[in-house]
Task: structure prediction
Amino acid sequence: MSPWVLAGLVGAALVGLGLYGLILHPHPLRKLLAFNLIGSGVFLVFGIVARRGAAAGFSFDPIPQAMVITGIVVAFAASALAVALILRLHAESGRVTLDPEAWTKPDDGAAKS
Amino acid sequence: MMAPDPTTPGGSLLVLAILLPCAGIILSFVLGGRNAERVALGLTPFGFALACAIAFHVASAGKPVVYALGGLAPPLGIALRADGVSAVMLVAAAVILTAASFYARAKFATPEGAPESRIALTFWIMLQAIWAALTIIFVGGDLFNLYVALELLTFAAVPLVCIDGRPETLAAALRYLLFALFGSISYLLGVALFYGAYGTLDIPLLAQKVQSTPIVWMAAALMTGGLLAKTALFPLHLWLPPAHANAPAAASAVLSGLVVKGSFFLTLRLWFYVLPALPAAGAANILGALGSAAIIVGSVLALRQARLKLLIAYSTVAQIGYLFLVFPLAMGAHVWSDIGWSAGVMQILAHAFAKAAMFLSAGLLAEALGHDQIARLGGAARALPMTFLTLGLGGLSLMGLPPSGGFSAKWLMLQASVASGQWVWTLPVLAGGLLAAGYVYRILTPALSEGDIVLKAPPKRSREAIALGLALIALALGFAPQGFFDLLEIGRPLAAGTLR
Amino acid sequence: MSHLSSALLVATLAAPLALLAACFVKSWRPCALALQWLAPAPGLAAGVLGVTAAPGSFDLPGLGFTLRLDPPGALLLAVAALLWIVVTAAVWRERAPDERFGLCWLLTMTGSLGVFIAGDLVSFYLVYALVSIPAYGLFAFSDDAEKKRAGAIYMAFAIFGEALLLLGFAALAAGEPHGSSRIADVMAALPASPWRDVILALIVAGFGMKMGLIPFNGWMPLNYAAAPIPAAAVLSGAGVKAGVIGLIRFLPLGVPLQGWGEALAALGFLTAFYGVLLGLTQQNPKTILAYSSISQMGVIAAALGMALGAGDVSASGDVAFYAANHLLVKAALFLTIGALAARGAPLSGAPLGGWTLALAAALALSLAGLPFTGGALAKLASKAQFASGWAASLATLSSIGTALLMTHFVARLDAPPPDAARECPLALVRFWPAVALGAILLPWLFYPAFGDVSEALGLAKFWEGLWPVLIGVGLALGLRRLGLRRLGWPAPRVPAGDSIVLFEGAFARLLALGPGFETLDARLRQWPAAGVSLLLIVLALLAAGVLG
Result:
C-alpha cells in the first residue's frame, strides 16, 4: 500500500467520522470538534493532491501546501469564533444547546430593531 | 512559458475596491471607539464611487476588467476579474451597505460624551468586513481565493447576528456558524478535487479544461452543496429565520439582502463560468426543484408567522428559491437562456433592494411601536405612513406586480420557461407570487384599517427616507433599459471557452 | 398619429399620475385629491377625438411603453372618463372622504383610464393591476365583517386573475419572434404560436374573472353590496370594462377559431342566463345590479365568442359600443338606488312620484334594449354577432331575461339598503334626472361612428326592440301578481355570491394545510435532518452529473 493510498484512506475515515459527529452529536462543542476532524481529512486530501507535482518532475507541488496552511488558519479562526460564541452562550443562559425549541420563548420583537 | 500580463485598463480599481474596506477595518481598529463609525461612514462614498467606476469601465470596454496580482498570469498568479454581473453586484452592494450604515447610526453611533462601546466598534468593523468579503467574492477569479472570501463573509456576518448578546441571538449565531462551517468544508473538499484533477483553480482556465468525469461532478456537487448550505436554500434553511429575524434591522437588511447573495453568486460562478461546457440539465433540474420547494414552503411559512421580522425572514427563504430557477432557465446556449440569465440577476437585485428596505422598515416599526406583532398593527399605517409605504412598495416587488424589479424578474422567468418548453417552472413562479400577495396583504390590511395606535417614539424622518429610497430603487429596476441587460451579458461564457 | 392626439394620450396618464405625485407632499395632498375630478379631462378629450379618428399608436421614448388609441378603446375611454369626472366631482364637492379612500380612488381611476390606451403588454399589465388592486380600498377598509369578507374575496380573485394573465402575457411575449411587446405585434404572432390554446385559455380565464363570467362570478355581488354607492358606480361601470377591453385586445378576432369561438359564446350565454336567474333570487338592489352586470358581461363574452368563431374584426367596435352603453347605464342605476332613497326619505316612505319611477324604469330597461334608449342602439350594434339562428334566439331570450330582472330591480328600489341615501352625494341626488337622461341618451351621440342611427328609428326595429321588453316586464309583473309567493316566489333565497361559498370552502381546506407545512418545516430544521439533506443533495447532484 503506497503512502498516498494510505493518506487517502485515513482522510476518508476522518471525513466520515467527522460527518457522523457533525450531524448527530447535539452538543455544539462536539460538532465543532467534528468539524475539525473533517477539516483534517480534507487537508490530507490536499496532501495527496500535492503529489500531482511529482508527475511533473518536482518532488511535490507547493500550491496545495500553501492552501492547506491557509485552510488551517481559516479553520482555526472558525473554531475560535465558535468557542467564543459557545462560552458566551453559556455565560448568558447557563446552557448550551442548538435546539430551536429551547429558544422559542414569547418574544414581541421589541428589543431588536 | 510565461503568459503575458492580462491586466486591462482599470484593473487596479479592483485592487482599490478590495483594499478600501480592508484599510477601513485596520483604521477602525487602530483609532477605535467613536472613530470607527466616522471611518466606516467616511469611506462609503469612496466605495460607492469605486464600484461605479468599475461598472463604467466594464460597460464602456464591453469586456471584463482584469487585474493579475503581481503581474503574474494564471495559472501561476491569481487574477481578479470583474465582468458585467460583478460590476452590477458591486454597485448594488455599495448602495445597500451605504444605506444600512447611515440607517444604523441611530443605534450604533457614539455621540460626544457618551462612553465608547464594544458593540458599536464590532458593528462598524463587521460591516466593513462584509463589504470587503463581498467585493472579493464578486471580483475573485480563483476558487480557493473565493473560499477564503466566503469564510470571511461568514465570520463577519455571524457577530452581526448576535451583536446584542441575548441568549437566543447567540444560539442563532452559533447555529448559523456551525452549519456554515459544514458548508464551507464541503466547498473546500470540492476545491481540492478540482485542483487534483486539473492543477489550476483559475475560473477561465478550468472552464477550458473541465470534462464530464466523475471527479468533476463530485467536486461540483460538493462545492454546490456547501454553497447551498450558506445560501440557506430549502431544506438547508435551518439557520436563516432565527438569525435574520433576531439581528438588528440594519444587520438583517445586509444579511438578507447581500450576504446570502454572496454564496449564491459563487454558485452562479461555478455552474455558469466553470462548468458551462458540461451537460448539466439534470443538476439544473435538481436545483430548480429545490428552489421551487423553497418558494412554496417559505411563502406558506411566511404566511403563518406572527412576527413581522420572522415573516420577512421566511419570505427571504422563498425568494432565495426563485434565484435557483435560474439554473434550469439559463443553462446552455439557447435563445432563451439569455432571458433566463437576465431574470436571475434581476431577481438577485430586486430582492436585495426590496428585502433590505423591508427589514429597515420593520426595524423602524418595531422601535416606534415597541413590538412587531402583526396582529397588533391595527391602524399603524396612519401613524407611520412612510414606513408602511416602504413596506408596501417592497411587497409590490416581492409579489411581482409592475412596475418593479420583482415584476421584471418574474416576467422574464415566465418567458424563459415558456420559450424553453419547461412549463413546470411557471407553477412555482406564479404560486410564489400569489402567496407573497397573501403575506403582504396580511401586513398591510390590518395596518390600513381602522384602529388607534400609540407610538412609543416617532421614527426619524431620515431613517424612513433611507428605507424608502431602497424600495424605490427596487421599483426603478422595473424600468431597466436594454443596455442594462446587455451589461449583464458581458463576460458570460456561453459554452466551452467562448466569451461574449 | 397627430401631435394633438399623442399629447392628449400622454396627458391621459400623466394628469392622474401628476396628482398622485403631488399626494406625496402632505400639504398638497388634500388639494390634489380634491382636484382629481379634473384628471380624466384629457382622457375624455382624447376619447372623443379618437372615436372617429384612424387608429394610431405612440411610443413613449425612454420608458419602452406604447400608447395606442383605436375607436373601440376611444369610445370606452371617453365614457369612462366622463363617468369618473361626474362621480368624482360630486363626491369631493360634498365632503372630502378620508385620504386612504382618496388615494385608492385616484389609483383606480388611473388604471381604469389607462387600460383603454395601453399599447404594450407590460404597460397593459401595469394599468390592469392598478384598476384591480387599489379598488380594494374603495370598500374594504372597515370593521364590518361582511365588507372585510368581500374585500378578501375580491382581492383573491384579482390577484389570481393577475397571475393567470401574467403567464398568458409572458407566453404571448415569448411567442413574438422579434422581441417586441407591442400588443399589435404579439397578437399578429399569436395565431401561429405553438402555445396558442394555452394562451387563449389563460386570457379568457384571466379577463373572465374581472368580468364575472361563471364560475368566477361570486366576488361581484359581494363587492357591489359592500361598496358605497359612488364606488359601486365607478367599479361596475368603468372598472369591469377593463376585462372587456382585455378580451377585445387579446382575442385574435381576425382569424376564425371555430372551437374557441363557440366555447366562449356558450360560456357567455350560460353566464347571461345564470346572472338573470340568480339575480331574481336577490332582494338587495345593489346585489341585483351586480347579477345584472354578470349577465350583461356574459352577453358581451357571447358576442365576442361569435365574432371569434367567425373571424369578424369589426366586432371589437360593436362590443365596445355595447360595453359603453352598459358602463353608463349601470353606473347610473347604482346612483339611482341612492338618489331615489334620498328623494324618498323626506316623504317618510311615501311612494316615489310616477315620473321618477318611469325614468328609473326606462333607465333600467335600457339594458334590455328598450326602444329609443341607448340600449336599443347597443342591441343594434351587437346584431352582426347574433345574426345566426340559435345565437339570435338566445340573444332575444337574454333581452327578455334582462327585462325581467330589471323589473325586479325597479320593484326592489323601494327597499334600498340602509346606508344608500347617505352614501349618494347630494349633487347626484339633486341632478339625478339629468344623470339618468344622460345615460339613456349619450350613446346616441356616439353611435354615428359605429352605425346608422336612422336604422334604429324604423317601426320594425321599434317593434323588434319592444316585444322582448314587454314580455320580460309582463312576466315579472305577472309573477308578482299571480301570487306565486305562495309557491315560494321569490325564493329560493340564494346567498349573495352563490358559488363563492364553494370557493371559500376550498380555500378553508387549503388553509388547513398550513399546520402541516409548519410541522414539515420544524422537522427539516432539526440539525440532523438538515445535515442529512445536505449530504443527499450532494449525492443527488453527483448522480445527476455522472448518470445524465
